[in-house]
Write a sequence for this structure.
């Protein structure tokens, strides 16, 4: 019963099968493999973007940091949520890759609002050469607290960015979960809403380690390639990245896996609502839940072998009814049976 | 009547005289000049720090960015006020010099409190390798909104930093104004209170362009020298930096000039309190005032040739009684007569 | 018949099998997986270095750039061969990761000599703060021109480095091929000879994409971890890196595969020596050959579908007897039959 | 008798007088001072470049590093002489400011030749994304070994650069000495010959510390301003930089001072040619001499108080006739009498 993250489950069998299938004979290295051609074509189709530049890297942080460095000068600032992965969980990778750009935190909530974004943008670049210049806006979709921006919300944020001439990046580490939740197309959630570049995640949703970076305007494609190589993120045996993404896109595995994860999450929400004292404290639009459970429930779950992050407090000692916050994440590989076991354990 | 900043007045005649005096014959370049030896000795005396490493640079941003880069690894974060010069007015110089460190803003006020600092520090480095690591604390003294931390307040902040094993930097672009306001010694305001490194400003207080960087522990002296050279801040004809600082320290010019600037500011505060409708909106501990004046007063001042920053609103058009915020800064060169003229103009 | 590089052949079946075996259930992310514990233990055994810090990354450039950045301050210079991969083939990754360190090229030959290294080191840091400071020495083993340093040669280079107090890095992208060629132990080729840190390559020798970085002194282990994360090279689903390395080390696959590649290369050398006009122009100590073949031979090989780099000249047009230089690389997957076909095609 | 460098003599009295004259009343900070307007206009006139972007910084390294960083992406390489100041004497400042670009050394001589430059350029960017991309060419005029490129030679180098689409930077730390030696115009030595950006030195030729950076195409002017601020090289009390440059340009002080320095050098060359055993070992086109003098002559000079760099060997002990190499630099402030004293001392 592992609900700690969507980075600890196994890779989907179709992904492994594609790697095995790719492991035949010789293949051109460094992204010139035939499978990459196929992947590029398929992503352009999915995104309805025949000119898009498409690249693969192995980690989400690489996708974000390289995309942002390509979009952002070192004397600029990136606008993002205070809970954004690029701010909280990348150990200064965006600052590193951009050669010292800044991150300006927008508002104080998980989801940025157009008003807060406008205020943040207007607050910068009022001091001429003295302050940082305005750089791109980065939207995290799914957010780090489990919320999904609607297409209209993304468009509203992008409209603010565009009104200042700024680029828009979408950190889609959980892109598929968001799209599955919204029931929209990939194009609607991105360029049709004003997004310029996307980190399109595969790792958290059934792959071993692969993320696509997509620029809808290919003008900076070559610069990105150089930055990727300089960042040591260009794989020589690139076919193994390509094969993962090939399987991920084939027969909509990405959406199938995301729907399953989202459904897992919904079942878990339903179950938690039947646990005495449990409170859901966040939006649960996709595959992530923030909740508070009584200490006794945590103790029973720990005894049953459940694994997840308890975010504050001591599970072992204290008032049995005291609520302790936790995070629960479902990936594609969770089964309904596991969820039912989890809920049963929580109830005791 | 120029009250826009303390960076637009003339240099003190004693500083110019020292430069002229230094302009004789040959002098060793790159900091090996005899005057620098004298400056180093004098600063060590003033700070009661016989082992301190002492360097000169020409800008306050260079002093701050180089000092912080020497104290901070690129995967760390610097704790500072949201109004700190290093955050707002250095166009990402700290991020640049540190190779991509982050700045964590402490609280939402001009002055950091020990509680807010502790909360900010505890908020970082809770994610192991994923988030930035805790780096030094930077205190701006005088703050960018005109406040002076007491020695006890500095000590309280430094105590928090030390309890986490973090270094403490003091951005003393207006060091002399702060010390003059507090009536303490330089040692009391720095190392005796727990400060490890100081940017000791001269430029805003009567020099042409010189700041000292002082490390009380000389362990990183050589690294600083290399970073200064690599940053292109090592002057070949260094004697002209030395001479400025020599004059600045001689006969306590630094304190004389600061006392004069602070007294100017106090006189201006007194005067503003007699202007109908005027409101002082900040602390005025040193030589800087944030105030709101009726539009009509701004119009009269503009007509009289007064120069200062109006921070919001249109001076020329609108309700005559409406209050518009402004910043007024006094440097050493302002005369009582000028202040009286200013107040007279404001009153009309 | 693909002899262009050792980065285009398939991964070894044992590596794929290990990945499939690892793909069961949940595993701790970010390097905390059990297989990594096993890998760490095994590498420490192989290198007879029970205290060594061991990390995995996915590309050779990441291994080199991160290791060097951990060993080298930004105001220092790395000493390396003018043909070193870190100089020629990493698109400034070492300069990037080190925040602007320099590379000083040692001599003009593929292999550094102790004399040339001493001269290069003595040539730097003669200008105090003005020039770059002396940083680590990086040895490429196998070299980019196919030569293998003997243990004594490595020790002689390391002795020079140590006499100046400098660290020693070994770029072992083809570590196994070198060790197989020398018949020594891993310890003899590294720390017993004075090497401080190793990039231990797996990718070119049968893995999909994995390299170990080994520091024999673990003092900088945590700094390396932070730099790896900041560089976006920490894998969330780390088990798939671990599994590759696990298989690579099991039953000496690394040495088996390397011996096979080296034997392939020797067979190819023997064959080339029977091709009229062909000249071997480099050392062929491991699995790489630089040679000159008559244009007609190149034409016959192209017609037969052989793939390799022709380094200068136009294969299609010109004097049939003219010699054109080329590079031929054998990986583990080449068969004796393929080599015989290649030689037969070259002869026509 | 100080012949060690042109960075140790006094500033010209006209420069000091201009600073004193500028020290009246209030002046707009950060480059918005009226004197800067005058300087910009005057430099545009001198260079016959009415659109040029003109900036001042305080050190030659800042001028070079900032200009090159504006011209060069971090994944590119700068082509320069192996003796270039940017390579040998800036402690990796170009690598730092460019965020990790490389320097490719052209040939093995002090002066680059078009052939060597072409070879160097052709040698890069032959590996696609793997090697650094071709960046700007930097020409040092006067070279670090005392030679002056003719206008035709500069044009020939720039023609090679242009044929590859590369920018051309001229490090003119001794621009005036070069122009005085050539008897050409500033335009002829720069944009008319194909130069895009110039570091126009004042510090070594009578100023305290000021260099102009000139971009003939102002397209990157704003980027340069941001880089200058971010590098901490924007002076708040900018008028003191402006005043130095104002004096330097007024009544052709720059050329007067340079002619005097060059004449000093010629007189010293003539004198050395009369010292028994002395050999001039470099070109002496401007104000710098590399020579070998008998040890006994060095000893007599040392006894007489002469100061200059002896580049190898022990002056005090050894064969009296043995030749020891040295560098002698004349600045504007050297007098014919001093030179005659020097020669007399050398002869004994």
């Amino acid at each position: 019963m592992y609900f700690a993250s969507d980075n600890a489950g196994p890779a989907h069998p179709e992904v492994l099968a594609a790697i095995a299938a790719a492991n035949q004979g010789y293949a051109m290295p460094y992204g010139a493999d035939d499978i990459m051609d196929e992947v590029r074509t398929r992503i352009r189709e999915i995104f309805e973007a025949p000119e898009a530049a498409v690249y693969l890297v192995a980690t989400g942080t690489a996708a974000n940091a390289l995309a942002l460095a390509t979009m952002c000068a070192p004397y600029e600032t990136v606008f993002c949520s205070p809970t954004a992965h690029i701010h909280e969980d990348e150990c200064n990778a965006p600052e590193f890759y951009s050669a010292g750009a800044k991150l300006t935190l927008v508002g104080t909530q998980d989801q940025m609002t157009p008003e807060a974004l406008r205020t943040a943008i207007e607050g910068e670049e009022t001091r001429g050469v003295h302050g940082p210049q305005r750089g791109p806006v980065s939207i995290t979709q799914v957010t780090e607290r489990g919320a999904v921006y609607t297409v209209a919300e993304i468009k509203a944020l992008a409209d603010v960015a565009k009104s200042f001439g700024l680029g828009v990046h979408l950190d889609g580490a959980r892109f598929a979960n968001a799209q599955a939740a919204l029931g929209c197309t990939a194009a609607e959630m991105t360029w049709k809403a004003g997004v310029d570049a996307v980190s399109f995640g595969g790792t958290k949703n059934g792959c071993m380690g692969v993320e696509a970076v997509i620029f809808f305007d290919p003008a900076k494609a070559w610069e990105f390639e150089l930055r990727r190589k300089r960042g040591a993120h260009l794989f020589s045996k690139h076919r193994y990245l390509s094969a993962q993404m090939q399987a991920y896109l084939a027969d909509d595995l990405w959406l199938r896996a995301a729907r399953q994860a989202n459904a897992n999450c919904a079942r878990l929400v339903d179950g938690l609502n039947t646990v005495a004292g449990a409170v859901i404290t966040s939006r649960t639009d996709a595959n992530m839940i923030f909740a508070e459970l009584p200490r006794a429930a945590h103790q029973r779950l720990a005894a049953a072998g459940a694994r997840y992050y308890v975010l504050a407090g001591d599970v072992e000692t204290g008032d049995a009814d005291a609520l302790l916050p936790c995070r629960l994440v479902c990936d594609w590989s969770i089964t309904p049976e596991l969820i039912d076991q989890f809920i049963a354990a929580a109830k005791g």
The two ends of chain D are 15 Å apart (CA to CA). The mean pLDDT of chain D is 97. Residues 13-252 of chain D form a domain with the Aspartate Aminotransferase; domain 2 fold (CATH 3.40.640.10). Chain D has 14 helices and eleven strands.
